[in-house]
Fold each of these.
Amino acid sequence: MNELSLNNPSIKGLGTLYVVATPIGNLSDITLRALETLKAVDAIAAEDTRHTSGLLSHFGISKKLLAVHEHNERQSAEKLLLQLKAGENIALVTDAGTPGISDPGAVVVDFVRKAGIKVVPIPGVSAVIAALSASGIVQNGFLFHGFLPASGAARRKALDILKTQTVTLVFYEAPHRIIESIVDMANVLGSDRRITIAREITKTFEMIYCCTLCDAEAWLKADANQQRGEFVLLVEAAPIKDAGGISEEAVRVLKLLLVDLPLKQAVKLAAEITNEKKNILYDFALQLKQLE
């Protein structure tokens, strides 16, 4: 068993599972800690061993590779657990990005953690954060949904559930579904909402484009190349409803009370102090909480 030169001692007699983020395109984005970990572990559990072999070869690393993908994740977790219990240290990687974030990995992590194995994250590149950082979106907070359902009906149902969210909505999408998803977003969320389309983040043909949902389909269709690659889609938040006729003083009082009190108690006191209707204050308080 190799000794990891990391400040994360294993549980006595057991190995450690390292969840390692890898580059999403530009290999130079790999972290020094990720390289150190991949060099030191006994084996690497990979979504696609051929893909990971290329990454390891680039950095001069040679390791035993174990296949762990969406079709065998549960069975692989059981095998990995045996190796971890035998004292081996294992790195878990996917083809790009962080395991468990719209990629295989969560099943393995949950399984071995419940068995008492230490799990250590090795953070790195994230397409979500990269896209947000370059979008210029200043809305408070975001909701990462990942991939929408492949079927149209299920996709529209998912969007319908999300359409009232007052935070930026973030999705991943594949090139063969990008047009259909954009059309559904415009129809369900509202065509006047702004969208930032981040394509091929960190790769040679990286592109970040902002427009309204009503213009996004035409932009994508104007050049077939703009429909290629992996997408991160950032959709403008739903507008915050007004205070429903609540007085400025009632809004001020409610906000002050919400700082130190539970929502229901704050609403009750605000209604007593300002003589506003409790149900209206409650609805407005929920909106305020969503923005925290």
Amino acid sequence: MARYAPRHPGAARNLMRFMGFRVDGSVEDYREVGQRLPFLRFAPRT
């Protein structure tokens, strides 16, 4: 989440609000959320 948020600030902010988190937009806030939630990353097979 800490890498995603700076690239997509509006989407990250909306996603956090939708999931019930309050963030101030700092990387630390997004990093904390990322540590609390499981995330999946989809990547093409090589």
